[in-house]
Amino acid sequence: MKLQHLPRNPVMAVMKNELHSRVFSTSIQCMSKLEQGDKKILSYLLDRRWVLASPDSKINKVSLAEIQSEHKGVKPPTFFLSNNTQPSLGDVMTENRKNDLYFYVVRDDLLHPLINGNKARKLDGLLPLVEDHSVTDVVTCGGCQSAHAAAVAVSCAERGLRSHLLLRGEQPEIPTGYNLISTMYGSVSYIARSLYAQREDMLTKHAYLVAGKGGCVIRFSDILETSLAARESEEVLPALDGCRNVLRGANAEISSRKVVIVNEGAGDAFGLLGVIRLVYFLSQNNLFGKERPLKIVVDAGTGTTAVGLALGAICLGLPWEVNAVMLADTIEGYKRQEKCLIFDFKRLCGLEHLDDALNGVDGGIVHWVERTHPRKVCFQIW
Q: For 229-331, where are the E strands, in sequence order?
């Protein structure tokens, strides 16, 4: 079985046979450590407020059939694509012949008219946390045509938050695409590439500028620490009193501006939650179930979506493999990001048996793949 999610231009290159032959043994070993469908884990990860009213997504099935030429050997084979918008899933799924080529398309591109695919998923669990901490302004960054920046701008506008978007490079003469959306819904600043290279410093300085006198700046690491402290004391998650990073000292009066920094591509542990919610949805018995092996291929910008898919499969005990096509960094960079996200996720959950299940996999729950074709495919699951 193959499952593929293509919110933008699908290309035939993703159907290369080598992806079918990859074996992801680490995931299988992790699943044996974790009881399938653990209620405590599911309750902690999924029993929260979300942006999306439902995790549901439409699923299409695309089949590829070869049309036999009347003169064999004279012309190259011709292929025909057919799209089934209401495929049979669950227990009634029919087994295809061995030579049949097909994949499923999870249409997350239909979740929102302006927010594309996995961007909506990562903000699904992240933005309610922002609201829980009475944040008024969100600062983030991305390329000039960043889908992430546009998604943050639109989502914040819909929820009454102010967004401040730091975009790499020069301002275009005529705004188009995601750049146009960003300028319509958020406050955009264009940053020289030399300054943008120091993302953390750039984000921090701009966040304090937005906060102004008496304001405060928080990061999701602050929210994580507060969450851990609240869990240890068995208290309800509090707001960040004093915001930790108050401009005029610990006893300063807090203004109405409370600014949160969202990393590029929502590359935070809390951004994993919405992706895990998607995995839970897809693993329902009326869809792909928990027993069928799936091969997942996802384009990786920051790598957060790929790590979220892999963690979701581990938490739910699913025999699913995750292959991520690298778009923006080296394999060493992606492995570092994967390790950091797993570390923060362990702390976020704080569940001993989950920590045991993830023990020893800090560098190996995603298979990172070199990109060999131009950037066209955004998110695929095989």
A: 258-261, 294-300, 320-326
Give the residue with greater pLDDT, 113 vs 362: 113
Do the Cβ atoms of 381 and 5 come closer than 8 Å?
yes
DSSP-based three-state secondary structure for 131: helix
Answer yes or no: are the C-beta atoms of 161 and 153 closer than 8 Å.
no
pLDDT digits (tens, 9 = 90+) for 18-40: 333 333 344 444 444 445 445 67
β-bridge mates for residue 138, sequence order = 163, 260
67: number of Cβ within 10 Å: 8
CA angle 53, 39, 320 (to 5 degrees): 75
Region 190-218: what's the mean pLDDT? 94
Find, among 45, 9, 93, the residue nearest to 275 by Cα.
45
Range with the poorest average pLDDT among 147-161, 173-187, 340-354: 340-354
* Single-letter amino acid code for the residue at 110: L
Among 123, 101, 154, 140, which Cα is nearest to 52's?
A: 123
> Maximum CA pair distance of the chain?
84
pTM of this structure: 0.80
Q: Which residue in 225, 216, 168, 208 sits closest to 191, CA to CA?
A: 168
The whole-angstrom separation of Cα 28 and Cα 298 is 19
Nearest to 129 by CA among 161, 93, 91, 85: 161
Amino acid (1-letter code) at residue 218: I
Q: What are phi and psi of 336, to 5 degrees?
A: -65, -45
Q: Tell me the pLDDT band of 272, cut-offs 50, 70 and 90.
A: very high
d(CA 123, CA 155): 8
